[in-house]
Amino acid sequence: MSPTLEHEYLIELVRNQPSFVTTLLTELNVGVPPFDEALLGNTDFTQCVPTEYQSDSVVTLKKSGKAVRAVVLEVQRKPDPDKSWSWPVYLATLRAREKCPVLLLVFSPNANTARTCAKPIDLGHPGWVLAPLVIGPEDVPAVTDITQAIAEPELTALSAIVYGNGDSPEKVKVLRTFVEAIVQQPHGRPSYSELVLMLLPRSDAINLYKEMKMAVTVDDLMHLPFVREWVEQGEAMGRAVGEALGEAESILKILNKRGIPVTDEARERILACTDTTILDAWLDRALTATSIDEVLS
């Protein structure tokens, strides 16, 4: 998968549904106050100094129009020591701007990186220690309940991406639940099918695409380069198989007209062959051979 997409997929889910950050916080047993709306905020924390500070995403929770909690969301694919200096800046700036309590939520698809990101940051002042809230792959629930999958499409997509890229025993069930949720979801609800397909390993993505075809048509996804490639490859393969089958049937017709007996095993072998080079050789031999063994030798 592209580095940009690997970094951005969670940000895209939150961009589409800002309140999704509260779902992630719940998975970490972090409570949030009641709120009416969740809004994307300004990610720029640059101050009147040359250094630029910019987070991946900011979500502000509001109650009756007033900010009650703001969340800085960061995605870390690998450890970055500089974050121990910039993350406190994000929180302090956001707290001053929104005039409300703030949280730092870090997501890492890598377990080792998640553990590194969770290390407390001592800011120097007595008692002033920042403990980042970190959600790693083991903190993402395996969504296998269809009711939950339909109700929480963002969490379901994240679950499909995380478990689809591992060897977890829940992998197949998670991906099938994702497909079932697409089939049953209300009209107009985002499925995130494109995002999940692009982030899964190629073989898994192909299998998932085949299962999804009832819910997401080929035309819906033809703008994706890899889907076009699969379709074109499938059409080319179909033409090649059709041509091979026609040549195999020609061989059998020639042998039949020449009165040369063909065993069931030999018939199956000829019809199953898709290599046109081999079929061409068999066809030439069928014109003069005196036995099926001579044709297939």
Question: How does this structure look, described?
Answer:
The protein has 297 residues and is of the alpha/beta class. It has three domains: 1-139; 142-218, no CATH class; 225-296, no CATH class. 53% of the residues lie in helices and 11% in strands. The chain is built from 14 helices and seven strands. It has helices at residues 3-16, 20-27, 83-98, 111-117, 146-151, 153-164, 171-184, 193-199, 202-212, 218-221, 225-257, 264-272, 276-286, 292-296; strands at residues 37-40, 57-63, 66-75, 102-107, 121-122, 129-130, 133-135. The strands form two sheets. Strands 1-2-3-4-7 form a five-stranded mixed sheet, with helices on both faces. A hairpin with a 6-residue loop joins strand 5 and strand 6 (129-130). Helix 6 runs parallel beside helix 8. The longest helix has 33 residues, at 225-257. The radius of gyration is 29 Å and the shape is elongated. The model has no long low-confidence stretch (mean pLDDT 83).
